[in-house]
Amino acid sequence: NRAGALAAAFACYRRGGPSRGLALRAVSPAGREDIDGVGHKYHLGLVLEDVLDKDSTVNCTAEVLYHLGNKTTAPDVQFTLEGELKNTDEADNIFYNQIRSLEKELVAENIPDSHGNVSPEMEPLHLLAWVASGYVIWQNSTENTQFQLAQIKHVKQVKRRDEYLQFDYKILLHEMVSQEIIPWHMTVVWHPQHGVEVTQNSCQ
Amino acid sequence: MKILLVFTTLVAAAHSVQLFVGDQVLRIVAKDEEQINLLRVLGKQTELQLDFWRHPSSPGHPADLHVPFPSLQAVKLFLESNSISYSIMIEDVQALVDEEKQTMMKARRVERSISTFDFASYHTLDEIYSWMDTLVAHHPSLVSKIQIGQSYENRSLYVLKFSTGGWNRSAIWVDTGIHSREWITQATGVWTANKIAEEYGQDPSVTAILDSMDIFLEIITNPDGFAFTHSSNRMWRKTRSVNAGSTCLGVDPNRNWGAGFGGSGSSSNPCSEIYRGPHAHSEREVKAIVDFICRHGNVKSVISIHSYSQMLLFPYGYKTALAPNHQELNEVAKKAVSDLATVYGTKYTYGSVANTIYMAGGTTIDWAYDHGVKYAFTFELRDTGRYGFLLPSAQIIPTATETWLALLDIMVHVLEHPY
After folding, report:
1. Do you know which Gene3D superfamilies this protein is assigned to (chain A) (predicted)?
2. B380 counts as catalytic
3. pTM exceeding 0.90
């Protein structure tokens, strides 16, 4: 289960954007290998769904290798999507142009709010955080942890001289096993043609 | 024109009134355009303070005119001298207003909170406690409210009892909100309480259950934590007790029970979200339930509701060994999650706590099970992480609705397997 969640988070990071977030719908474990001196490798079948369109799913096979002992190395994740993901160029461009045309840098808090509400204007920022958190989760996961993005506490746009969009996020991650809520900072950079990149991240 | 001048003097002394004592509403039917025009001109006499509730539009169609008491005589004189036919629709407007006010006040006391309580929103502690009283008032022969103790910060711990009589009947215990940040659970508890009350006498299963058993439902099992999630930190999980020698507050009430207490999956660090507490049942919120169930002596099922993960779990959490009736619990869970999925397709996994989610010592259902409660289950409601604890309020009713089917399956099984 944890390996599945990790693989999904990684896939989401690699393939997601403000108009596309992938979530894990189902895992079918296909086997676990214990590699002497290296670590534990899990073979999995996953079904990923588009969070904006629950009926749109894609199958995926993944391998997750948790390294023995060394807690500072992120697990190795390989995945293969079996199928096409919906094209989101149009929505991406609309969002990109909207943000570029803002006079004042965007600032927002508490997404979702206490009641789970996300306003439509904030949805792309929410998705972008979801996707970027996939990176943070991947980098910080072990066999004994399972992270989810719990909330965006604060997000601030940072205008750049180049064509990329940059957002500085303060997020809360929920770790399932310890049940801890962990505040985290991440700087997310995105461009419609260049995907999502987390350029800086640290826990508070 | 002359006629208008006549009654203008008549009502020279007219003054505005706050109340409507003696005011009338006249239903006027003009027979031609000329009469329509006369009515329009009449309405424009501001000193008369007339108010058309329905304006004169065309001949043959009624116009309704509110006439203040001081202007009555003049207006009637005008209508009669112009042969405009009318009848008195409302004899005394104030009387009607008073009557309406009475009805509304009565409705507010009894009806409002039942039929207008918004089950599709998240509510505060006070709103839920207040609603509980309304539920009891609305179903006095079925529902009563018991106080089983007080929280650390001295808030009342209330349990709703659903009973059709008898004495110390076999009972089912349900709790929601033991972890305060799991807001979907308290919201589901409220909806479910209402559902049970509504369905007794309507739904055959609910009726059969309540005809021989009692249901106890504690909706806000951790009121201090719940209040804190509203006032300060939406992500607060534990109780709010002070821990000696630490600046960190609170104990995880689902690690504080005396079954596998201190075992893996719980922490000895007061700052941890899974801090087990200084000893088993150290938390008043937990002790109150322990005492209640022990004194009752006839509780046959304990169902503890959490979120999130979409799972239906049963003992054990403190050990990987299977419970003696594992097979039976597994079958019950299988059917329950299957029925739950029929509503919206929501997929749940199921199994023992240790094998499905993680090892956890000191949990509610392990304690209940080790104290003879054969049918002990924990729900982890929606979702699987997309919104997590911040589940949108739009999902409250769908979640409660699908969960209801699973709850009913468990309760029916308990009814049909007395021990």
Report:
1. 3.10.450.10
2. yes
3. no
